[in-house]
Amino acid sequence: MKSRMAENSEYFSIGSTVRIVTCHNVEMRGEVVAFDVGTKFLILKSPTAGKHGAFDMKVVNLNLVSDLCVVSEGPSSPPPLGSVNIAKVQSRVKQSLDEKMRQLNLVGIDVTPEGQQLMNSISKTIVDVRWENQNIVVMNTVVIKPPYRVDDCKVFKECPGNAQVLAHISKIVEKHHSDEMNRQAQLQNDSQKSTSPSPAPSSPASSAS
Length: 209
What we know:
Blueprint: E1 2-3, E2 17-22, E3 27-36, E4 41-47, E5 55-61, E6 65-72, H1 86-105, H2 113-123, E7 129-132, E8 135-138, E9 142-144, E10 153-155, H3 162-195, H4 204-208
């Protein structure tokens, strides 16, 4: 086993196995996947605990490493790089961007906190939801106007199936307000407990009497 301090490291062979101790005295071990000389960033691969065939990737800043040992050297020539499915990568990037935009559009402008909280609750189970000024529009079928109670849920127009959608959205709104009332009651109860004075200890004379 070769000991090699981080400040003296010039390179690491791909496929080598190293053991690292950080400046916080955290030890880790893994296979070298990549190493950047300029930044002294080392990427290690290690098996994921409890998941057969899965691996964790860790980026290590060697400037924050107190000790490093090369347990075993990698092959003389690095293994060939695996093929990259560009279409799949682009699809994942697009999905991520679309989701970020959806999350951004869920934030209302000049809406009340109660309206925003209801929007957040609905969006957890229904993707097709958006703001239209201060109104919440769900599935282009139901509109919820301030103050966002069950009675404020209306369909745009009477069509077959819209009544079922309205009933479903109304249940979501009712549950949201019920959960919010329970949460506020719990917070108030906890606050009262924390501010209630402790009972005074009994004096010896009182105990004797």
